[in-house]
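Figure 2 data, in text form.
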Amino acid sequence: MTGRNGAAAGGRPAGRRRPGALALIVLALLASGMLRLMSDGSAIAREMAALAADGAGAAPAADGPPCEAAPDIAQLLAAVQARQGQLDTREKRIEARLQTLAEAERRMQENTAALIAAEQKLAATLTIADEAAEEDLNRLTAVYENMKARNAARVFAAMAPEFAAGFLARMRAEAAADILANLEPDAAYAISLIVAGRNARAPRE
């Protein structure tokens, strides 16, 4: 026993053993994992840098030329613009027609006013003429009444029966009777018929 203890004492101290094979495998695995993690990290960093570079290069695309409209939208816009042009042209034509109608109406009103003024003037002239004619007839009737019946009868015999009947109808009954008495019976009869017929045709209530 003394020899075994002495040999133990002459060798390694008790409690200190060499690392086993399992420990060496674990250390190798840890080292391999660390190396892989480091390589993966550098790859991820490279990928992130590449994405950042791509994003920076694509950003200025917003300042480029505007996107072109789709063919359907472009055709629709062209149709709307063409329709708007047609409506504008039609509106201008309508405005021109309205102006023409307004001008024609203004001229028609002016012509109507001129016609009314001319009609009023003509009516006034006719009134004056009628009054003058009436005055002349009254004066001439008074002349025939103041003439001698025999002389007036000769004048009435030369008149047309209708014309003579008009004067006799205006005279006083006594003067008209004296003139008829001095006329030829046929002339006096014809004039009397005309005077009676004028009164017979008058409207009665």
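Caption note: The longest helix spans residues 71-146.
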